[in-house]
Write a structure and sequence with these properties.
There is one protein chain. 34% of the residues lie in helices and 21% in strands. The protein is an alpha/beta fold and 302 residues long. Strands 6-5-4-7-8-11-10 form a seven-stranded mixed β-sheet, with helices on both faces. The longest helix is centred in the C-terminal third of the chain and has 23 residues. The chain is globular and about 45 Å long.
Length: 302
Amino acid sequence: MKKLGPGHRVVPCALCGGTATRRIYTKFELPIAKCRRCGLVYANPRGAEADILQRYNRDYFWNEYLPAAGAPDGRIDYEFIDGRNAPMLALIRQHAPNARRLLEVGSGAGLFLKAAERAGWDVAGVELSADGAAFAREHLGLDVREERAEAMSFPAGSFDVVAMMEVIEHLFDPRAVLDAVHRALTPRGLLVITTPNFNALSRHAMGVDWAVVSPLEHMYYFTGRTLGRLLSACGFAVVADRPVLDIPPEFVMNPASTHAPDGWRTRLYRGFVRRYGMELRQWVQRRGLAETLVMIARRSES
């Protein structure tokens, strides 16, 4: 990871607008700070947008993103993507039993959207990566538009549900994107967000070595409290913030998510998860300590 160039700048807090922060981590020689007023954690000062976006190039898409998503070399195992996304689609359906139209913001290669389409949804997506949007269109036959989410071209009120899966932490301006999502949803439409949980047991166990702590990739580090406050400020009411999903313990407490796989903290945590993970996975979710923060909110009617 490279050091910030001369284009770095101090960023006001996306939640309260404050500028007073204190540094809580330094990772790859880069700062991660906490707002002194509201507690939001974010990369500050931040690198130039062009430097950050260089990370998401064609090599990254084909050699890192797709293999991690379960589609190495672009090979799609539909049974795998259906199974991987079934718990989240079931959760969405539980909160939106009559919904039909689903938009994914930051849809990547479109694998979640394809699983949703196969489950009966009418789907569309927006994706900043040219490679991701092209893959979704050409390989999966999806309506995924290469455009910024805050300037999406869909008409207002087009969707019953919007999903943002592991996206909000990457955004330069999460408020602008949430405002655009608010416009795209029908009144009382549903927003489903997943993002790394800064209050995760994994972060407490592994500290700065937790792989999520990566300030040239992740601009923001939310807890249930800070994300809930941001959603409320953008016209959403949270309806669920600690759903318990029937998923393996590695999706709840993941000791492999580390930049120090041989470090003593990682080794202790790995042994703990191996021994107690199955027993504790649902308790950890209920306590708001899961690896991933899952939040479901409803758009205001106005």
